[in-house]
Design goal:
The complex is a heterodimer of chains A (297) and B (323). Chain A has helices spanning 2-43, 48-52, 73-104, 109-121, 126-140, 148-172, 176-184, 189-217, 221-226, 245-253, 258-294. In chain A, α3 runs parallel beside α6 (148-172), α6 packs across α8 and α7 (176-184) runs antiparallel to α8. Chain A contains 11 helices and no strands. Chain A is mainly α and 297 residues long. Chain B has a single domain (65-320), classed as Orthogonal Bundle (MetI-like fold). In chain B, 71% of the residues lie in helices and 1% in strands. Chain B has helices spanning 21-59, 62-65, 79-110, 113-125, 131-158, 173-197, 201-209, 214-225, 227-243, 246-251, 269-276, 285-320; strands at residues 69-70, 75-76. A two-stranded antiparallel ribbon of chain B has the order 1-2. Classes of the chains: A mainly alpha (297), B mainly alpha (323). The interface between A and B is large, with 95 and 96 residues.
């Protein structure tokens, strides 16, 4: 009777272990499926023209006329410009806040607030960032509501908390003794911050920026509200309607046009490769960073 | 600035030098960044309130309990979308929590080190895949599976619960929830794994010494200890699910009514904003949509603030705790 119970408990325990292992398998199936689908459906549209041609006009092949294939050049271009502009807006703000929090905040409550605010901001739904920018720009100048500029502002709002948080963590990896050594040599405080602490934390900060780029490059919801979908080729300037891979995937996915759907899968493959590549690189660097300073404490 | 002499003459006087302009400027610039980040949070609420004001004045509290959304008749009620958002998010958590906890337990308690690191990283990659791609994948891969396999079986075996209907489209509340669960799993798994890993070894050893099996150690010694962290992780997952837009907009079917069952089409707060913002039939619809955005913003702010406060307390405690 007692022996039975022990066996039952053991068996139950083993069963739960197997189940928890199975959970991992179940979790990994969608990831594998997403990547597999993107590669299988997307690779067929990859060609030289895919990267250089403008988007095709909507068209249904009939009466023996075939549709022009086209490419995603304006979307690719637009995504790169959006990344550049939104980094320009978000990086100084985020890194500045992080420096203030780590270098001047010390143990004061004020410093904790910045981290907390960044964490809470990172939970703001991305579409709300789109609504926010829409209201502001509509007030500022209704003519440029739907523009690359508005789109990059919305993406910058998504990037700021990520940049702040990761920069803060990177700055904190620099041991206090390094700062003290610099100050003891008579180096002024801001030079210590810039030339010693910031330089030491630079790899970490850069990976944080890359991480935030990976996140914002995939965002489509805020762009749906403020980017417009003009997709001009070549690029017409930041005050005109813009184009982005992520938004274009949505437009392709909801289109009845087979040609568009195929191209959207090509764009999806490109975006998955970009985002996963950036994430992998950042993880590798972050791991190395964590190890580097460990010995010096 | 050019004279970067690292060895300046010792300053006279025992006390530290008065900060030079360089120090002051640097302080001011970084402080501006800090104020900017904090100000951003306040600006979000203020600007959205401002944008929503016409709707708030026009509709008053009826906005919160009206069950219809009819722009041409200027009747705006948030209820169908709150229902859609809450149903999809909670269903997503229902699917995600057991899987995430199982994965977190396996990674921390059972997996050898060579599995733990890589698999943990790969699960976090799930979070990196853009929402719109999950939606697109859902349309092509998930919808047919739901329509032809899962939904008929659910109806056949569990139709008596009243949760399902014999109309299998695949573009419905259930499909949206499944994709949402995939998107919340990395968050919940990562935070649960970290909080489980932070459980002191002595806690486990005590249970083992009493003759507990692996499962009993996890169930009675590890999980209760890590409970706060797990709850915070689940809450953050909920926050993510509430705010997800593109995948839901592609999969939920887009019907502005409270879903009758899990196979009904519905609409969430985010998916309505995404699909209706430009097709606003009536100029009064845009402020009403902004008011929905404000509602969602406040909801997610409260949820995230709660989870973060719990987590930071837990992280602060971990520093002092027994390793």
């Amino acid at each position: 009777m007692n022996f039975d119970r022990a066996v039952r408990r053991k068996l139950f325990s083993h069963g739960m272990t197997v189940l928890s292992g199975l959970a991992i398998v179940v979790i990994l199936v969608p990831l594998a499926s997403v990547i597999y689908t993107a590669v299988v459906l997307g690779s067929s549209s990859l060609s030289y023209g895919f990267f250089t041609q403008p988007l095709p006009v909507p068209c249904t092949p009939h009466l023996g006329v075939s549709c022009p294939t086209g490419g995603v050049a304006p979307a690719l271009e637009g995504t790169l410009i959006l990344i550049g502009l939104s980094s320009l807006f978000s990086v100084p703000l985020g890194v500045g806040a992080a420096i203030f929090s780590v270098e001047y905040g010390g143990e004061r409550a004020g410093a904790r607030i910045i981290g907390l605010v960044a964490d809470v901001l990172s939970g703001v739904p991305s579409i709300v960032a789109g609504v926010f920018v829409y209201i502001l720009i509509l007030y500022y100048d209704p003519a440029i509501v739907f523009s690359t500029l508005s789109g990059s502002l919305a993406l910058a709002l998504i990037m700021v908390p990520i940049v702040t948080r990761t920069s803060e963590e990177a700055l904190r990896t620099i041991p206090q003794s390094v700062r003290e050594a610099a100050l003891a040599l008579g180096i002024s405080r801001w030079k210590t911050s810039v030339r010693i602490v910031l330089v030491g934390a630079l790899p970490g900060i850069l990976t944080g920026i890359l991480l935030s780029i990976a996140r914002s490059a995939g965002e489509a919801a805020p762009l749906l509200l403020v980017l417009g979908n003009g997709c001009p080729h070549p690029f017409e300037g930041i005050y005109q309607e813009g184009c982005a891979l992520s938004l274009w995937i949505y437009l392709g996915a909801t289109s009845p046009d087979q040609n568009w759907i195929a191209l959207a899968w090509g764009a999806a493959l490109l975006l998955v490769a970009l985002v996963l590549g950036l994430s992998l690189v950042t993880r590798l660097v972050l791991n190395r960073m964590a190890r580097r300073w460990k010995g010096s404490e | 600035m050019t004279s970067a002499n690292p060895f300046p003459a010792p300053s006279s006087g025992g006390r530290a030098r008065v900060p030079k302009w360089g120090d002051r400027t640097f302080f001011a610039v970084t402080a501006a960044g800090a104020v900017g980040v904090v100000g951003l949070l306040i600006a979000f609420v203020v600007v959205l309130y401002w944008g929503a004001q016409p709707a708030i004045e026009m509709l008053g509290p009826s906005f919160l309990y009206t069950k219809t959304w009819n722009p041409s008749g200027e009747v705006y009620g948030i209820l169908p979308f709150v229902a859609g958002t809450l149903i999809t998010s909670f269903l997503a958590l229902l699917i995600a929590i057991p899987l995430s906890l199982g994965a977190a337990l396996f990674l921390t308690q059972h997996a050898p080190a060579w599995i733990r690191g890589p698999v943990g990283q790969v699960i976090e990659l799930l979070a990196a895949i853009p929402s719109v791609i999950y939606g697109f994948w859902g349309l092509i891969v998930l919808v047919p599976i739901m329509r032809y396999t899962i939904e008929p079986n659910l109806w056949y075996y569990f139709g008596w619960t009243g949760l399902f209907s014999p109309l299998f489209l695949g573009l419905d509340v259930l499909s949206a929830s499944v994709v949402l669960s995939i998107m919340t799993i990395p968050t919940i798994t990562a935070i649960s794994r970290d909080s489980i890993a932070a459980v002191p070894r002595s806690q486990k050893e005590a249970a083992i010494s009493l003759g507990a099996t692996d499962w009993e150690v996890s169930r009675h010694a590890v999980l209760p200890y890590a409970r706060n962290g797990i709850v915070a992780g689940v809450t953050l997952g909920l926050g993510r699910a509430l705010g997800e837009t593109m995948a839901v907009a592609l999969l939920i079917g887009g019907r502005n009514a409270i879903p009758a069952n899990l196979f009904s089409q519905g609409q969430t707060i985010t998916s309505l904003i995404a699909t209706d913002f430009f097709e606003a039939a009536n100029p009064t619809e845009v402020p009403a949509l902004i008011e929905m955005g404000l509602f969602l913003l406040i909801l997610t702010l409260v949820i995230n603030l709660g989870a973060r406060v719990v987590l930071s307390r837990f992280q602060a405690g971990r520093g002092v705790g027994v390793e």
